[in-house]
Fold Ribosomal protein S7 domain-containing protein.
Amino acid sequence: MALRCSIGRSSLARLGSPLRSIGSLSDQATAQQAFGALGAGPSVFDAPPPPEKDFMDLPPIGTYRRGPRYEPLINVPPPEDPLLYFLTSMLMRHGERAKARRIVSKTLLYIFTFTRSPPLPILREAVLLASPAVRTSSFTHGAKQVQIPFALTEKQRTHYGIEWLIKAANARTGQRLAERLAREMVDVVQRTAAARGLQGANAPKFTGTLGKKAEVHTFAMVNRGGVRIDPAAARGGDGITTT
């Protein structure tokens, strides 16, 4: 049985015409010109590939966590500052993040207006000075309440510091939250700098954010006898349990 097929004239013309080259002379000249603009040395395609390195062979670095940690292959900067993002999240109400971002931006502007200095380092210092190191939890032991101090993680410390700064700013007189928050941050940094070196009876009595932090630390020191200590862990380290 014979098979019949039909081929158009255009298809025959394409079959009969010579094949075109993949890259024309003009494209090759453009590529050579582009490679030459990168440098007068040899082409990057002529150099041998670098030897492959196993990412698991990186030396471990010291850490407080269990198990070894390895250095990252590349340090990718975050899209925005993590502290400003955290502050924005704590200022946000009813999902209005754009409004909270404007408050943070105006706070930085007010800090610069009050100090004529870069605002971000001052904001970082204020949050660091306002952040507590411990918290105290109440437990029932028999028929009495026992207060036990616990160490805070870095994120918990930052959370308490920002929360106290916002509460102290709300207690200030003023129309705009950004201005009140900026004044509280500048006040925290200035009062801490002025109180350095003063101890005993000469130590000032702080109010606001620093007063809340001093109150929490004093209460934790009074109840330091209730700190839980693991005897097995005390032989190998500090032995203080944290949450």
User: Anything to note?
Assistant: The CA atoms of residues 207 and 225 lie 27 Å apart. The chain has nine helices and four strands. The two ends are 86 Å apart (CA to CA).
